[in-house]
Design brief:
With 60 residues, this protein is of the alpha+beta class. The chain has 2 helices and 4 strands, in the order αββββα. A hairpin with a 5-residue loop joins strand 1 and strand 2.
Length: 60
């Protein structure tokens, strides 16, 4: 199935502990949040990235 119900997706990615990794990223369930960086000090380096692996969703 290619499309999942939004409640399933929210529960899949959001359930879990909130932890801070050794490199300073924050993990909320299966979502990783980190400072963007790598922009030589430009304003965009202060933004946040939210990372998920959508392939995991179809294995669930």
């Amino acid at each position: 199935m290619g499309i999942k119900p939004i409640n399933f997706v929210i529960n899949y990615y959001g359930n879990g502990k909130v932890i801070i990794t050794p490199k300073g990223s924050v993990k909320i369930g299966k979502i990783t949040m980190q400072r963007k960086g790598g922009d030589s000090g430009r304003e965009t380096a202060k933004m946040l990235q939210f990372k998920i692996n959508p392939a995991e969703l179809f294995d669930a």
